[in-house]
Design goal:
Elements lengths: L5 H65 L2 H6 L6 H16 L5 E8 L4 E4 L13 H9 L3 E2 L3 E2 L6 E11 L2 E11 H11 L6 E6 L4 E3 L2 H6 L3 H10 L3 E5 L5 E9 L4 E8 L4 H4 L1 H43 L14 H58 L4 H26 L6 E2 H15 L9 E5 L4 E2 L1 H19 L10 E9 L2 E8 L14 H15 L3 E6 L5 E8 L10
Parallel strand pairs: 13-15
Antiparallel strand pairs: 1-2, 1-6, 3-5, 4-5, 5-6, 7-8, 7-11, 9-10, 10-11, 12-14, 15-16, 16-18, 17-18
Helix pairs in contact: 1-5, 1-9, 9-10, 10-11, 11-12, 11-13, 12-13, 13-14
């Protein structure tokens, strides 16, 4: 995080600050979702409880009705194989009056004997009909208790009914059945009374999933009978599915009147994502608002912080490169950033002022150093001239040669100082050019009349060296070339003196050789002058931190080999 930008850190800090808000929003949305589910479940449960209670009241009232009817003497006497006509008449009249007290709720009532033959009925058309094949008769014969049958088509009336029957027991023996048929209209009325608020609806279905009660809206909401029968068989209390009208509903199933009928309560579930996920809409709005806040902070930080700072950085880079530039932002800055810009501008002006002063001082120093080198060169040339004049007064050749050697050494230093003040860098000299000028000057001073001058072959790498390296090398070259010029080149086909310098890794090798013949013909170098020159060459090689080898070539001439460390890159700083 230490390398993050200011903008990234600011946005991250705000995002961390918004995390508790998002957490609270998510927690609130979760609570609202759970509350919504609980309210919907509670509504379905209350409506289903109400429907079951109303259906239980209906069936309980039917039980009491049947119990009262079967207790009548005429009804009980009719439950025989051959009842008297007067008894049948009284029984039918009783049942008709009983059903008339509940108009529209019951379709018919009848009494059968033990064989299932109707012996008494509210509708005379039912007399003599056999109901032994009805499931309700078989069940009541076995159960000998109140039985609610499946929905069937009435043989007496054109409407479908739900039969309810109780057995007629005499002396512990089954003597017949007393039954009444509840009309589906009565079930529909009970269903309508049980419909709740909030879009819930109640329908009654049998075990096959077929609707037997409820209004048209409630029955259209029911899923296909096969799906509903599967849920009833599997014992599912609640499930969600699509109704026959194509909408999605949540269903709650409760058995009524035993296990023959079931009350199905339906509540619509919205297929609109916004409506179905309403508790989370607020949370997503909070998330979007947070993202918007972070975006605004990101853009604002870029607009009022990052861009101005980047402009100031570019300005500082240009100032560091020495460009003359004025801080002129493209648009107004905030007071804080403007204050930073003013501070950077003041610093740039101070740097420019100090740089100008340093440049002036450097130019003055460079001028002074060039002047010093120039004057040193002039003084050395004057000394060389004085030595030359003094040598002219000396008649001894040996002493005159000593003065000439001293003059060459002074000229070497003079040439070095000339190269120092003529170059753009006062502390470095061009090695190859320096050696060439030095050899040319020595050949002019030491030229002997009537003797063929040797040719010089100079090969050196292009490199710049400081005075600490150039002075010892120049003196070594001066001494070696001076020794070579004392040799006799008359027998050489091509008189030459070779000066070669090569770089070998971290070392430099300087080779100076000639093809002349020593005039004494014996020692590698003449005594006297040669002895001092050898000592000087060895001392200068040690000053360079290297080694020197001096040898006589078999074909004639000397070879001087100096190997010394390659000059360091910062050598001029010590010059």
């Amino acid at each position: 995080m230490a390398r993050w930008s200011l903008r990234s850190k600011l946005v991250t800090l705000v995002a961390l600050a918004l995390l508790p808000v998002l957490g609270l929003a998510a927690w609130q949305a979760k609570l609202q979702e759970e509350a919504s589910v609980w309210h919907r479940t509670a509504a379905l449960g209350s409506v289903s409880d109400l429907a079951v209670a109303r259906y239980d009241n209906l069936f309980d009232a039917s039980r009491r009705l049947l119990s009262a009817a079967c207790a009548d003497e005429s009804v009980e006497l009719s439950a025989s194989a051959d009842p008297a006509a007067a008894t049948v008449g009284r029984c039918g009249s009783y049942l008709s009056k009983l059903l008339a007290a509940y108009p529209g709720q019951y379709s018919s009532a009848l009494v059968t004997d033990e064989q299932g033959i109707a012996r008494c009925a509210s509708d005379p058309k039912a007399l003599g009909m056999s109901f032994a094949d009805r499931g309700v008769f078989r069940k009541v014969r076995l159960a000998r208790d109140l039985v609610i049958g499946e929905t069937i088509a009435s043989r007496i009336t054109p409407n479908a009914i739900i039969p309810i029957a109780i057995p007629i027991i005499r002396d512990g023996t089954f003597r017949g059945m007393c039954a009444v048929g509840i009309s589906l209209r009565a079930l529909a009325q009970v269903t309508a009374q049980a419909d709740g608020t909030g879009g819930t609806a109640v329908a009654v279905v049998d075990r096959s999933g077929a609707a037997v009660g409820g209004d048209a809206t409630a029955m259209r909401r029911l899923p296909v009978p096969a799906r509903l029968a599967e849920s009833l068989t599997g014992g599912q209390v609640g499930f969600s599915d699509f109704g026959q009208d194509g909408s999605f509903y949540e269903f709650r199933v409760r058995p009524v009147g035993g296990n023959s009928l079931f009350a199905v309560v339906s509540a619509p579930v919205s297929d609109n994502p916004l409506a179905s996920n309403r508790p989370w809409v607020v949370f997503f709005l909070v998330v979007l608002a947070s993202i918007g806040v972070l975006t605004v902070i990101w853009i604002g930080a870029d607009r009022w912080c990052v861009r101005p700072l980047r402009y100031i950085q570019d300005f500082a880079d240009k100032v560091a490169r020495g460009e003359s530039i004025t801080l002129s932002p493209p648009r107004p800055w905030t007071p804080e950033v403007a204050s930073v810009g003013a501070g950077v501008t003041a610093m740039a002006e101070a740097i420019a002022s100090r740089e100008s002063a340093l440049r002036a001082n450097l130019e003055q120093r460079d001028h002074m150093l060039r002047e010093i080198h120039h004057r040193v060169k002039n003084n050395l040339q004057m000394i060389s001239s004085l030595l030359n004049l003094q040598a002219g007064e000396i008649r001894s050749p040996r002493i005159r040669r000593f003065f000439g050697d001293a003059q060459n050494r002074v000229l070497t230093l003079s040439i070095l100082h000339r190269h120092l003040y003529e170059r753009s860098s006062w502390s470095l000299v061009d090695f190859q050019q320096f050696i060439s000028d030095l050899v040319r000057q020595i050949s002019v001073v030491r030229a002997a009349p009537g003797q063929q001058a040797p040719r010089y072959h100079i090969r050196a790498p292009i490199m710049a060296v400081g005075p600490d390296t150039a002075i010892p090398i120049g003196l070594i070259v001066t001494e070696a070339v001076s020794i070579a010029l004392t040799h006799d080149f008359s027998k050489a086909a091509t008189p030459e003196i070779r000066i070669e310098t090569s770089e070998r890794g971290e070392e430099v090798q300087l080779v100076i050789e000639d093809n002349g013949v020593a005039r004494d013909g014996g020692a590698p170098v003449p005594e006297g002058k040669g002895g001092f020159a050898l000592t000087l060459i060895r001392g200068l090689a040690m000053q360079l931190g290297g080694e020197v080898t001096i040898e006589r070539k078999p074909e004639g001439g000397n070879r001087v080999i100096v190997v010394f460390p390659r000059p360091a890159a910062d050598e001029p700083a010590n010059a």
